[in-house]
From TrEMBL:
This is NAD(+) diphosphatase. Its EC number is 3.6.1.22. Its cofactor is Mg(2+). It catalyses: NAD(+) + H2O = beta-nicotinamide D-ribonucleotide + AMP + 2 H(+); NADH + H2O = reduced beta-nicotinamide D-ribonucleotide + AMP + 2 H(+); NADPH + H2O = reduced beta-nicotinamide D-ribonucleotide + adenosine 2',5'-bisphosphate + 2 H(+). PANTHER family: NAD(P)H PYROPHOSPHATASE NUDT13, MITOCHONDRIAL, NUCLEOSIDE DIPHOSPHATE-LINKED MOIETY X MOTIF 13. The gene is nudt13. It comes from Carassius auratus. Keywords: Hydrolase, Magnesium, Metal-binding, NAD.
């Protein structure tokens, strides 16, 4: 029986401060989005994440053992821009991302038209492709890095009105763009994607596309078609990609994913009849798909690749920042409890 969105795994929202503090911060953020002058003023005391052709700037941690997102004070960034021969006022082209727990606004800025090596030298860091950066920075920083890139890309690809062909104009925060010719307002959007971990009760099904890194297998995923519910999209994707019929599904969580162009991942667990597990792969979509035991999954979770420059294991799963990893970890935990 299909039980849509029946949670069998807990999914809790944890706020780092008191609820009243969270409400205050969200209302402040909304004011910055809507009030251009307030946003300009906030930028003066805020911090900016730099991107060079959509690659974020990273710096080594104080211990020197890892990397973190480089967050520059606006005043410091203005000095750096002048040193590399750029008008410091391009800082005003930054886009608002969020506010920290201390109500410090954070912005993102694309500087891809500037000399990369000169900027890296002046900033004391390096620009790293976002996929690689995810392996290098702390997990809590990954959503911010992804959001910064996604917002920059959206503005780059929405500079003209789809109805009139006329240029669109952003507001100061970058929360929308307007075509003054048609009056249409455009807001940043994410494409809904279902991602599902299929199980037959004792094994889980993972697949890989040809574009995946060597040895990596992940949960099945696919874009929702126009007019589809999440449940309908999930059933269709599993049937299309591996030829299996889902009997039950449970919602797990969601995540913004910046690839290929800002996806909204809706993660679920699904079960199939243990007597009907013959996989029939759609070769146009997948390179391989197969069932994995609890022991194989446990070993993969314990031997995650830590450095993208090194040879990965023969079989590995997406890293912890990806919601696919969350699904796999939840399944393994559920199997462990069942066995006890």
């Amino acid at each position: 029986m299909l039980q849509s969105f029946k949670p069998i795994f807990s999914c809790n929202l944890v706020l780092s401060r008191s609820f009243s503090g969270y409400v205050s911060r969200m209302r402040y953020l909304m004011r910055l989005k809507e009030d251009d002058e307030a946003c300009r003023e906030a930028l003066k005391s805020g911090k900016v994440l730099l991107y060079h052709k959509l690659s974020p700037l990273l710096r080594k941690t104080s211990s020197g053992s890892g990397y973190k997102l480089a967050s520059l004070k606006t005043s410091d960034l203005e000095q750096i821009l002048e040193k590399v021969g750029k008008d410091k006022h391009i800082v005003n082209e930054s886009f608002l991302l969020e506010c920290t727990d201390k109500d410090e606004p954070q912005f993102s800025l694309e500087v891809g038209d500037l000399d990369r090596s000169a900027l890296e030298q002046e900033c004391g860091g390096m620009f790293v492709d976002l996929r690689k950066a995810f392996f290098m920075i702390p997990g809590p920083e990954s959503p911010l890095a992804a959001k910064g890139q996604a917002l920059l890309r959206w503005h780059q690809t929405n500079s003209f009105c789809s109805a009139t062909g006329q240029p669109t104009v952003r507001n100061q925060s970058g929360s929308y763009r307007v075509c003054h010719s048609s009056g249409i307002t455009y807001y940043p959007k994410m494409a809904p994607v279902v991602i599902v971990l299929v199980s037959d009760g004792s094994r889980c099904l993972l697949a890989r596309q040809a574009m995946f890194p060597k040895g990596m297998y992940s949960a099945l995923s696919g874009f929702c078609d126009m007019g589809e519910s999440v449940e309908e999209a999930l059933l269709r994707e599993v049937a299309e990609e591996v030829g299996l019929e889902v009997e039950d599904l449970q919602y797990s969580g969601s995540q913004h994913w910046p690839f290929p162009q800002s996806s909204f991942m809706l993660a679920c667990h699904a079960t199939v009849n243990p007597d009907k597990t013959q996989v029939n792969i759609d070769k146009a979509e997948l390179e391989d798909a197969r069932w994995f035991t609890y022991e194989e999954i446990t070993e993969a979770l314990q031997n995650m690749p830590r450095d993208p420059r090194r040879e990965p294991p023969v079989f590995w799963v997406p890293p912890s920042y990806a919601i696919a990893n969350q699904l796999i970890q939840e399944w393994a935990n559920h199997q462990q409890l069942s066995r006890k």
